[in-house]
Amino acid sequence: MLTISDKSQLDLNGFLLLENLISPATTTQLRKRAVELASAEQKAGKGHTYLPNETAQRVWNLIDKDEIFEEAIQQPKMLAAMEYLLGADCILSSFTVNILYPGAPDAGLHIDYPLSALPTPRPKFPMVANSVWFLDDFTTENGATSCVPGSHQRLDTLPESSVKYKDKQQICGPRGSLLIVNGAVWHGSSENRSDKPRVALLGFFCRSILKPQQDHLKIVSEEVVERATPTLKRLLGLNSLPGLNM
Ligand SMILES: O=C(O)CCC(=O)C(=O)O
Which of 18, 39, 41, 73 is the S-S candidate for 47 at Cβ 3.0 to 4.6 Å? Predict the structure, then answer.
């Protein structure tokens, strides 16, 4: 499923832009549902907002919130990229909405959980990876994700907030595109200087031996687990439970 060029971009740069992967109709549906959920959680006083002035919002546990997300997270090319990076048995760590409202500041460069907590040198091989789903066009104005190419190979250092990295790039693209990012790449959302929200989904994956960000087998309803395809069951963690409870 991945081309030689896709694989070499993941190896060398640590990220890969898959342009126009999702159809316009599905992108519209995903965005509509993402915004509805975010607004319902705000109204219920349960909105997870962050960044100064609460200019960004997450909606967690999407797998339990609409069937459209159960299907989305099995997108074949996205999964092929995750399996290339993290092994054929990789699992879902979390699936969330990430909205940057107008005025959201640059979030700064980081590497993903749990890499920043590991002793150095960090492993050379990928342990976690994110898929950033562009539900709006990603532009330099609205906060397109920034990445530093090749920074996943800097195993001893972390990005410093006071430094302006000259090789940092904003990854722009049309709605319906997906950005695959090795979690060890220095990356982060940028300032939203536009007058509209920038809506994205984050499908975050990890190796099956790691503890995921969300324990899907506890937080996803039985109904969802029962109707899950074998692939979704594996992504939720059913094939990677501890097996020696003697
Ligand atoms: O939304 C984005 O542009 C990236 C988000 C991100 O880097 C993260 O949550 O780790």
Answer: 41
Q: How far is the CA of 145 from the centre of ligand 1 (A)?
A: 7
CATH of 4-236, one of 2.60.120.620, 3.40.605.10, 2.40.50.180, 3.40.50.12160: 2.60.120.620
Ligand 1, closest atom to CA 130? 10
Atom from ligand 1 closest to the CA of residue 143: 3
Closest CA to 180 of 99, 77, 94, 92: 77
Nearest to 213 by CA among 30, 60, 46: 60
Ligand 1 centroid–CA 243 distance in Å is: 34
Looking at ligand 1, which atom is closest to the CA of residue 98?
1
CA of 112 to the centre of ligand 1 (A): 9
Query: Which DSSP symbol is given to 104?
Result: P
Interacting residues of 3 by C-beta distance below 8 A, sequence separation 6+:
none
Q: What is the pLDDT along the chain (246 residues), one digit of tens a residue?
A: 899 999 999 999 999 999 999 999 999 999 999 999 999 999 999 999 999 999 999 999 999 999 999 999 999 999 999 999 999 999 999 999 999 999 999 999 999 989 999 999 999 999 999 999 999 999 999 999 999 999 999 999 999 999 999 999 999 999 999 999 999 999 999 999 999 999 999 999 999 999 999 999 999 999 999 999 999 999 999 999 988 888
Q: Which residues contact 168 (CB under 8 A, 6 or more apart)?
A: 109, 146, 147, 148, 186
